Design the sequence.
């Protein structure tokens, strides 16, 4: 499982970005709306990287387990 801080940072970017986007739409501020969309994308990317990190760690643990079983 990804580090809790990494997960928090990803979700924080996603939620903060959504808030900026909604506020930008409400105030007709395209710059803020676009910044919010960018923050959401940044959060999505961080989330994907966390998932990839977890998958690599799980694969390495399985591989290491097979080597240890063969001893």
Sequence:
């Amino acid at each position: 499982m990804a580090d809790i801080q990494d997960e928090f940072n990803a979700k924080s970017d996603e939620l903060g970005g959504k808030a900026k986007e909604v506020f930008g739409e409400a105030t007709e501020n395209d710059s803020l709306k676009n910044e919010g969309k960018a923050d959401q994308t940044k959060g999505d990317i961080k989330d994907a990287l966390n998932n990839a990190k977890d998958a690599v760690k799980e694969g390495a643990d399985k591989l290491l387990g097979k080597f240890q079983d063969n001893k």
